[in-house]
Amino acid sequence: MQIYMPTNVYSGSNCVRNHRQELAALGKKALLVTGRHSSRANGSLEDVENALQEEGRAYAIFNRIEENPSIETVMQARDFGIQEGVDFVIGIGGGSPMDAAKAIALMIANPQEGAGILYEKQELDALPVAEIPTTAGTGSEVTPYAILTIHARRTKQSISYRIYPKLALIDSRYLKTASLDTLIDTAVDALAHLIESYLNTNANAYNRMFSEKGLSLFAEVREELLQCRQMGREPKLTLSDKVFEKLMQIAAVAGMAITHTSTSLPHGLSYPVTYEMGVSHGKAVGIFLPGFLECYQAQEDVQAVLGNMGFASVEQFTEYLDELLGKVEISDELWKKDVELIMGNQAKLKNYPFVMDEETLYRFRR
Fold it and tell me: What is the C-alpha to C-alpha distance for residues 269 and 80, in angstroms, rounded to an integer?
């Protein structure tokens, strides 16, 4: 067994300012990679700007990262970063900016290469990367993965390089401006990471410790999340600071879990649903979790997962997710295409510990 977590993680209120020296030590000029609005609204972008200014570091801002970032956007940011002469990259936001930051850092460090290298196996270095998460879902602040949209194939896929952030600065205050849908969908994405890592071909005692901790933390906040949904009120009006802190912890330990196993079938099935239907990533993954648990052959392991979450059965878990997320109607045509794609996706199939066939996969759809 092995555990390898090279990212230096700090967590707490005012984390960016308190650890600005570590941030500044990554280079002389930073490329701040973010979306158009949320990082400015939640204060994270301002915190990073102030921290860099206090340490005498220059920076440039690329704020055009879309949800589910594309290869094309990464290349635009690469060109901008080269033009600005940056030597490290800071991702600020949810999984999209944080994943994009890793790919951008790779491309800036290799200006002679084209976009084709993103999905080739080469020995290439990337610029140092720091991540500041503002949602609690992907755990990209601690993982080596960078998932991009490939428009030519109408899907998403992680690049072929493992790029660990040098530094992760986690401040739960940034969650307080998240919308209800964003908070819930990202929490379910983290939940999927915990489940898919635990029930994985590559699972061992170490990654399962991360999963068990994350699942038990989810058990502590799941009713608050459901009440938030039932009330239809914005999270900052209904959730306590402790809940926001636990959500960030769940995302981080879930990221640590999948770092050692990668994800499995629910994630693979989610990508066409997100691309073709515009369903958010967390929701798209969540709709496949009940079928994944129901069909999993080692039901003693499923019961361990359910028990850590505080559920007595798959049925009870399914009812909870249906109320939390709502249902998604997938057309027969898309579902057939989705199943065919997974059956041809050896990267996801190998992470499932048993033989998978189309008949079983079709049972994942409810």
Answer: 34
